Protein backbone atom coordinates (compact mmCIF):
# COMPACT_ATOMS: atom_id res chain seq x y z
CA UNK A 1 0.00 0.00 0.00
CA UNK A 2 1.26 3.50 -0.83
CA UNK A 3 2.63 5.50 2.08
CA UNK A 4 1.32 8.84 0.82
CA UNK A 5 -1.58 10.07 -1.28
CA UNK A 6 -2.88 13.32 -2.74
CA UNK A 7 -5.98 15.27 -1.75
CA UNK A 8 -7.49 18.38 -3.35
CA UNK A 9 -8.01 21.12 -0.76
CA UNK A 10 -10.67 23.72 -1.57
CA UNK A 11 -10.62 27.13 0.09
CA UNK A 12 -12.58 30.13 -1.10
CA UNK A 13 -12.73 29.48 -4.84
CA UNK A 14 -9.20 28.09 -5.05
CA UNK A 15 -7.88 24.54 -5.11
CA UNK A 16 -4.52 23.08 -4.17
CA UNK A 17 -3.17 19.55 -3.97
CA UNK A 18 -1.52 18.35 -0.79
CA UNK A 19 0.10 15.05 0.02
CA UNK A 20 -0.67 13.17 3.21
CA UNK A 21 0.32 9.85 4.80
CA UNK A 22 -2.07 6.98 4.08
CA UNK A 23 -3.00 5.27 7.32
CA UNK A 24 -3.71 1.58 7.74
CA UNK A 25 -7.45 1.17 8.44
CA UNK A 26 -8.52 0.57 12.01
CA UNK A 27 -10.40 -2.64 12.93
CA UNK A 28 -13.60 -2.93 10.89
CA UNK A 29 -12.75 0.13 8.78
CA UNK A 30 -12.05 0.24 5.04
CA UNK A 31 -9.61 2.13 2.82
CA UNK A 32 -10.67 2.69 -0.79
CA UNK A 33 -8.54 3.49 -3.79
CA UNK A 34 -10.61 6.17 -5.51
CA UNK A 35 -11.99 5.29 -8.94
CA UNK A 36 -14.35 8.18 -9.69
CA UNK A 37 -15.78 11.09 -7.73
CA UNK A 38 -18.55 13.18 -9.28
CA UNK A 39 -18.64 16.96 -9.13
CA UNK A 40 -22.06 17.60 -7.64
CA UNK A 41 -24.25 20.70 -7.91
CA UNK A 42 -23.89 21.02 -4.14
CA UNK A 43 -20.10 21.18 -4.53
CA UNK A 44 -20.58 23.79 -7.23
CA UNK A 45 -22.96 25.97 -5.20
CA UNK A 46 -20.69 25.83 -2.14
CA UNK A 47 -17.77 26.85 -4.34
CA UNK A 48 -19.81 29.67 -5.90
CA UNK A 49 -20.52 30.99 -2.40
CA UNK A 50 -16.85 30.57 -1.45
CA UNK A 51 -15.61 27.65 0.67
CA UNK A 52 -15.11 28.79 4.25
CA UNK A 53 -11.85 27.58 5.70
CA UNK A 54 -10.46 24.46 4.00
CA UNK A 55 -12.35 21.43 2.80
CA UNK A 56 -11.89 18.13 0.97
CA UNK A 57 -14.90 17.91 -1.33
CA UNK A 58 -16.35 14.98 -3.27
CA UNK A 59 -19.35 13.04 -1.92
CA UNK A 60 -20.37 11.04 -5.02
CA UNK A 61 -17.87 8.23 -4.98
CA UNK A 62 -16.89 4.75 -6.03
CA UNK A 63 -13.65 2.99 -5.20
CA UNK A 64 -11.83 -0.32 -4.93
CA UNK A 65 -11.02 -1.70 -1.49
CA UNK A 66 -7.30 -1.28 -0.92
CA UNK A 67 -7.21 -2.52 2.67
CA UNK A 68 -9.52 -3.65 5.46
CA UNK A 69 -8.83 -3.35 9.17
CA UNK A 70 -8.40 -6.40 11.36
CA UNK A 71 -11.56 -8.38 11.95
CA UNK A 72 -12.84 -7.79 8.43
CA UNK A 73 -15.93 -5.85 7.37
CA UNK A 74 -19.33 -6.44 5.81
CA UNK A 75 -21.46 -4.17 3.67
CA UNK A 76 -24.82 -2.72 4.72
CA UNK A 77 -26.80 -5.80 3.68
CA UNK A 78 -24.38 -8.21 5.33
CA UNK A 79 -22.11 -9.32 2.49
CA UNK A 80 -18.45 -9.87 3.44
CA UNK A 81 -16.07 -7.31 1.93
CA UNK A 82 -12.70 -8.23 0.46
CA UNK A 83 -9.77 -6.35 -0.99
CA UNK A 84 -10.46 -5.67 -4.66
CA UNK A 85 -14.23 -5.25 -4.24
CA UNK A 86 -15.83 -2.21 -5.87
CA UNK A 87 -17.73 -0.23 -3.24
CA UNK A 88 -20.07 2.75 -3.11
CA UNK A 89 -21.04 4.44 0.13
CA UNK A 90 -23.39 7.03 1.54
CA UNK A 91 -21.68 10.35 2.26
CA UNK A 92 -23.95 10.87 5.27
CA UNK A 93 -23.72 8.60 8.31
CA UNK A 94 -26.99 9.38 10.11
CA UNK A 95 -25.54 11.61 12.80
CA UNK A 96 -21.83 10.75 12.76
CA UNK A 97 -20.48 13.18 10.18
CA UNK A 98 -20.24 13.20 6.39
CA UNK A 99 -17.73 12.42 3.70
CA UNK A 100 -17.01 15.09 1.10
CA UNK A 101 -17.33 18.02 3.52
CA UNK A 102 -14.18 17.39 5.57
CA UNK A 103 -13.05 20.73 7.01
CA UNK A 104 -9.86 19.71 8.85
CA UNK A 105 -7.85 18.08 6.05
CA UNK A 106 -4.50 18.41 7.84
CA UNK A 107 -5.86 16.25 10.67
CA UNK A 108 -5.61 12.46 10.17
CA UNK A 109 -7.05 10.44 8.52
CA UNK A 110 -7.05 13.24 5.87
CA UNK A 111 -8.92 11.27 3.19
CA UNK A 112 -12.57 11.92 4.02
CA UNK A 113 -13.54 13.24 0.56
CA UNK A 114 -13.62 11.92 -2.97
CA UNK A 115 -11.31 14.44 -4.63
CA UNK A 116 -8.28 12.46 -3.54
CA UNK A 117 -6.26 9.34 -4.27
CA UNK A 118 -7.83 7.45 -1.37
CA UNK A 119 -11.01 7.52 0.70
CA UNK A 120 -10.88 6.32 4.29
CA UNK A 121 -14.24 4.94 5.43
CA UNK A 122 -13.67 5.51 9.12
CA UNK A 123 -16.81 7.31 10.27
CA UNK A 124 -19.13 5.33 12.52
CA UNK A 125 -22.26 3.88 10.87
CA UNK A 126 -20.95 4.26 7.32
CA UNK A 127 -23.19 2.60 4.72
CA UNK A 128 -21.10 0.61 2.23
CA UNK A 129 -22.46 -1.50 -0.62
CA UNK A 130 -20.36 -3.55 -2.97
CA UNK A 131 -21.43 -3.61 -6.59
CA UNK A 132 -20.62 -5.01 -10.01
CA UNK A 133 -21.70 -1.82 -11.79
CA UNK A 134 -19.15 -0.09 -13.97
CA UNK A 135 -17.38 2.81 -12.24
CA UNK A 136 -19.26 5.26 -14.49
CA UNK A 137 -22.62 3.87 -13.36
CA UNK A 138 -21.62 3.26 -9.73
CA UNK A 139 -20.46 6.86 -9.23
CA UNK A 140 -24.04 7.92 -9.96
CA UNK A 141 -25.46 6.05 -6.96
CA UNK A 142 -25.54 9.04 -4.59
CA UNK A 143 -27.30 11.38 -7.05
CA UNK A 144 -29.53 8.49 -8.13
CA UNK A 145 -30.78 8.18 -4.56
CA UNK A 146 -31.96 11.80 -4.78
CA UNK A 147 -34.01 10.84 -7.83
CA UNK A 148 -35.44 7.85 -5.93
CA UNK A 149 -36.32 10.08 -2.98
CA UNK A 150 -37.87 12.77 -5.22
CA UNK A 151 -39.99 10.35 -7.27
CA UNK A 152 -41.26 8.61 -4.14
CA UNK A 153 -42.00 11.92 -2.39
CA UNK A 154 -43.75 13.27 -5.48
CA UNK A 155 -45.86 10.11 -5.66
CA UNK A 156 -45.62 9.92 -9.43
CA UNK A 157 -48.18 7.41 -10.69
CA UNK A 158 -48.96 5.32 -13.73
CA UNK A 159 -49.97 7.54 -16.63
CA UNK A 160 -48.85 10.83 -15.05
CA UNK A 161 -47.55 13.78 -17.02
CA UNK A 162 -44.32 14.91 -15.38
CA UNK A 163 -42.07 17.92 -15.90
CA UNK A 164 -38.42 17.90 -14.85
CA UNK A 165 -36.69 21.27 -14.65
CA UNK A 166 -32.93 20.99 -15.01
CA UNK A 167 -31.08 18.49 -17.18
CA UNK A 168 -28.01 18.01 -15.02
CA UNK A 169 -27.37 14.77 -13.19
CA UNK A 170 -30.13 15.30 -10.60
CA UNK A 171 -32.67 16.13 -13.31
CA UNK A 172 -31.66 13.13 -15.41
CA UNK A 173 -31.84 10.65 -12.54
CA UNK A 174 -35.18 12.11 -11.43
CA UNK A 175 -36.44 11.60 -14.98
CA UNK A 176 -35.31 7.96 -14.85
CA UNK A 177 -36.99 7.38 -11.49
CA UNK A 178 -40.24 9.05 -12.55
CA UNK A 179 -40.20 6.75 -15.57
CA UNK A 180 -39.77 3.76 -13.26
CA UNK A 181 -42.76 4.98 -11.21
CA UNK A 182 -44.97 4.89 -14.30
CA UNK A 183 -44.96 8.41 -15.73
CA UNK A 184 -46.35 8.25 -19.27
CA UNK A 185 -45.39 11.71 -20.52
CA UNK A 186 -42.14 13.35 -19.39
CA UNK A 187 -41.17 16.88 -20.35
CA UNK A 188 -37.58 17.95 -19.71
CA UNK A 189 -36.78 21.67 -19.49
CA UNK A 190 -33.05 22.33 -19.54
CA UNK A 191 -29.94 22.47 -21.66
CA UNK A 192 -27.54 22.41 -23.39
CA UNK A 193 -28.41 20.15 -26.31
CA UNK A 194 -26.19 17.18 -25.36
CA UNK A 195 -27.97 16.83 -22.03
CA UNK A 196 -31.35 16.95 -23.70
CA UNK A 197 -30.32 14.29 -26.20
CA UNK A 198 -29.38 12.00 -23.32
CA UNK A 199 -32.71 12.86 -21.66
CA UNK A 200 -34.47 11.55 -24.77
CA UNK A 201 -32.49 8.32 -24.56
CA UNK A 202 -33.58 8.04 -20.93
CA UNK A 203 -37.25 8.39 -21.84
CA UNK A 204 -38.08 12.10 -22.13
CA UNK A 205 -40.95 12.58 -24.58
CA UNK A 206 -40.49 16.34 -24.98
CA UNK A 207 -37.40 18.50 -24.41
CA UNK A 208 -37.35 22.29 -24.18
CA UNK A 209 -33.94 23.93 -24.56
CA UNK A 210 -33.56 26.98 -22.31
CA UNK A 211 -30.63 28.18 -24.44
CA UNK A 212 -32.99 28.47 -27.40
CA UNK A 213 -36.21 29.44 -25.61
CA UNK A 214 -35.05 32.07 -23.16
CA UNK A 215 -38.43 33.48 -22.17
CA UNK A 216 -40.08 31.87 -19.11
CA UNK A 217 -43.48 32.77 -20.52
CA UNK A 218 -42.76 31.00 -23.81
CA UNK A 219 -41.36 27.96 -21.99
CA UNK A 220 -44.49 27.81 -19.85
CA UNK A 221 -46.68 28.01 -22.92
CA UNK A 222 -44.79 25.12 -24.54
CA UNK A 223 -44.94 22.99 -21.39
CA UNK A 224 -48.67 23.48 -21.01
CA UNK A 225 -49.21 22.68 -24.70
CA UNK A 226 -47.86 19.17 -24.08
CA UNK A 227 -50.06 18.46 -21.04
CA UNK A 228 -53.60 17.01 -21.07
CA UNK A 229 -56.08 19.72 -22.09
CA UNK A 230 -53.17 22.18 -21.68
CA UNK A 231 -53.97 22.35 -17.97
CA UNK A 232 -50.55 21.51 -16.58
CA UNK A 233 -48.51 18.59 -15.31
CA UNK A 234 -49.46 16.16 -12.56
CA UNK A 235 -46.02 16.45 -10.97
CA UNK A 236 -43.22 18.99 -11.51
CA UNK A 237 -39.72 18.36 -10.18
CA UNK A 238 -37.45 21.42 -9.82
CA UNK A 239 -33.92 20.03 -10.12
CA UNK A 240 -31.95 22.96 -11.53
CA UNK A 241 -31.06 24.74 -8.31
CA UNK A 242 -31.72 28.17 -9.85
CA UNK A 243 -33.99 30.48 -7.86
CA UNK A 244 -36.04 31.65 -10.84
CA UNK A 245 -36.93 28.08 -11.76
CA UNK A 246 -39.23 27.63 -8.75
CA UNK A 247 -41.91 30.24 -9.55
CA UNK A 248 -41.67 29.27 -13.23
CA UNK A 249 -42.14 25.59 -12.37
CA UNK A 250 -45.10 26.33 -10.12
CA UNK A 251 -46.75 27.71 -13.23
CA UNK A 252 -46.38 24.33 -14.94
CA UNK A 253 -48.51 22.47 -12.34
CA UNK A 254 -52.15 21.56 -12.92
CA UNK A 255 -54.94 22.18 -10.44
CA UNK A 256 -54.38 19.95 -7.37
CA UNK A 257 -51.05 18.82 -8.80
CA UNK A 258 -47.73 18.37 -7.01
CA UNK A 259 -44.53 20.41 -7.03
CA UNK A 260 -41.33 18.85 -5.67
CA UNK A 261 -38.30 21.00 -4.85
CA UNK A 262 -35.15 18.96 -5.40
CA UNK A 263 -32.43 21.41 -6.46
CA UNK A 264 -31.56 23.51 -3.42
CA UNK A 265 -29.20 21.67 -1.08
CA UNK A 266 -27.21 24.89 -0.63
CA UNK A 267 -28.66 28.22 0.51
CA UNK A 268 -28.62 30.33 -2.65
CA UNK A 269 -30.95 33.01 -1.35
CA UNK A 270 -34.66 33.82 -1.37
CA UNK A 271 -37.34 34.38 -4.00
CA UNK A 272 -40.52 36.40 -4.29
CA UNK A 273 -43.61 34.77 -5.74
CA UNK A 274 -47.38 35.06 -5.45
CA UNK A 275 -48.51 32.53 -2.86
CA UNK A 276 -52.18 33.05 -3.63
CA UNK A 277 -51.87 32.54 -7.38
CA UNK A 278 -49.21 29.83 -7.55
CA UNK A 279 -50.04 27.76 -4.45
CA UNK A 280 -53.40 28.44 -2.88
CA UNK A 281 -55.63 28.85 -5.93
CA UNK A 282 -54.15 25.69 -7.44
CA UNK A 283 -54.80 23.65 -4.30
CA UNK A 284 -51.23 22.55 -4.90
CA UNK A 285 -49.19 20.03 -2.90
CA UNK A 286 -45.65 21.31 -2.31
CA UNK A 287 -42.93 18.83 -1.33
CA UNK A 288 -39.18 19.10 -0.78
CA UNK A 289 -36.50 16.45 -0.36
CA UNK A 290 -33.42 16.63 1.82
CA UNK A 291 -30.63 14.15 1.07
CA UNK A 292 -31.39 10.43 1.14
CA UNK A 293 -31.79 7.59 3.60
CA UNK A 294 -29.92 4.30 3.57
CA UNK A 295 -33.08 2.72 2.17
CA UNK A 296 -32.82 4.98 -0.88
CA UNK A 297 -29.26 3.74 -1.47
CA UNK A 298 -30.34 0.10 -1.41
CA UNK A 299 -33.26 0.81 -3.73
CA UNK A 300 -31.28 3.00 -6.11
CA UNK A 301 -28.29 0.70 -6.51
CA UNK A 302 -30.57 -2.24 -7.31
CA UNK A 303 -32.04 -0.24 -10.20
CA UNK A 304 -28.61 0.82 -11.48
CA UNK A 305 -27.38 -2.77 -11.37
CA UNK A 306 -30.22 -3.89 -13.67
CA UNK A 307 -28.50 -1.80 -16.37
CA UNK A 308 -31.72 -1.11 -18.29
CA UNK A 309 -30.47 2.27 -19.51
CA UNK A 310 -26.97 3.51 -20.47
CA UNK A 311 -26.48 5.09 -17.06
CA UNK A 312 -22.73 5.44 -17.45
CA UNK A 313 -23.18 7.69 -20.49
CA UNK A 314 -24.17 10.44 -18.06
CA UNK A 315 -20.47 10.79 -17.17
CA UNK A 316 -19.37 12.75 -20.23
CA UNK A 317 -15.95 13.84 -18.93
CA UNK A 318 -13.37 12.63 -16.43
CA UNK A 319 -10.61 14.89 -15.16
CA UNK A 320 -7.44 14.23 -13.14
CA UNK A 321 -7.05 15.74 -9.70
CA UNK A 322 -4.94 18.53 -11.15
CA UNK A 323 -7.89 19.74 -13.25
CA UNK A 324 -10.66 19.83 -10.65
CA UNK A 325 -10.88 23.61 -11.02
CA UNK A 326 -11.50 23.25 -14.78
CA UNK A 327 -14.49 21.06 -13.99
CA UNK A 328 -15.99 23.62 -11.63
CA UNK A 329 -15.59 26.42 -14.15
CA UNK A 330 -17.20 24.29 -16.87
CA UNK A 331 -20.25 23.71 -14.67
CA UNK A 332 -20.42 27.36 -13.65
CA UNK A 333 -22.79 28.47 -16.39
CA UNK A 334 -21.30 27.47 -19.75
CA UNK A 335 -21.58 23.67 -19.35
CA UNK A 336 -18.72 23.32 -21.82
CA UNK A 337 -15.21 21.98 -21.44
CA UNK A 338 -12.68 22.41 -24.24
CA UNK A 339 -15.50 23.30 -26.61
CA UNK A 340 -17.51 20.16 -25.74
CA UNK A 341 -20.83 20.19 -23.91
CA UNK A 342 -20.66 18.51 -20.51
CA UNK A 343 -23.28 16.39 -18.82
CA UNK A 344 -21.62 14.97 -15.71
CA UNK A 345 -17.97 15.55 -14.79
CA UNK A 346 -16.13 13.10 -12.56
CA UNK A 347 -12.67 13.28 -11.04
CA UNK A 348 -10.35 10.34 -11.63
CA UNK A 349 -7.25 10.08 -9.48
CA UNK A 350 -5.55 7.13 -11.17
CA UNK A 351 -4.74 6.19 -14.74
CA UNK A 352 -5.90 2.73 -15.82
Explain the overall architecture:
This protein has 352 residues and is α/β, with parallel strands linked by helices. The protein folds into two domains: 4-133 and 307-347, Quinone Oxidoreductase, Chain A, domain 1; 143-288, 3-Layer(aba) Sandwich (Rossmann fold), CATH 3.40.50.720. Helices cover 27% and strands 29% of the residues. It contains ten helices and 19 strands. It has helices spanning 41-49, 135-138, 141-154, 169-181, 193-201, 216-225, 245-250, 275-280, 294-306, 324-334, and strands spanning 4-12, 14-21, 30-38, 51-57, 60-68, 86-89, 101-102, 118-121, 128-130, 161-165, 185-190, 206-209, 233-238, 253-261, 285-288, 315-319, 336-337, 340-341, 344-347. Strands 3, 5, 6, 8, 9, 16 and 19 form a seven-stranded mixed β-sheet that branches. Strands 12-11-10-13-14-15 form a six-stranded parallel β-sheet, with helices on both faces. It has a four-stranded antiparallel β-sheet with strand order 2-1-4-7, covered by helices on one side. Helix 8 links the parallel strand 14 (253-261) and strand 15. Helix 3 crosses helix 9. The protein is globular. It starts with a strand and ends in a 5-residue tail after the last strand.
CATH class of the largest domain: Alpha Beta
- Could you please say which CATH topology of the largest domain applies here? Quinone Oxidoreductase, Chain A, domain 1
CATH architecture field of the largest domain: Alpha-Beta Complex
Number of strands: 19
Q: Name the helicity range.
A: 25-40%
Q: Compute the CA-based radius of gyration.
A: 20 Å
* Main β sheet profile: 7 strands, mixed
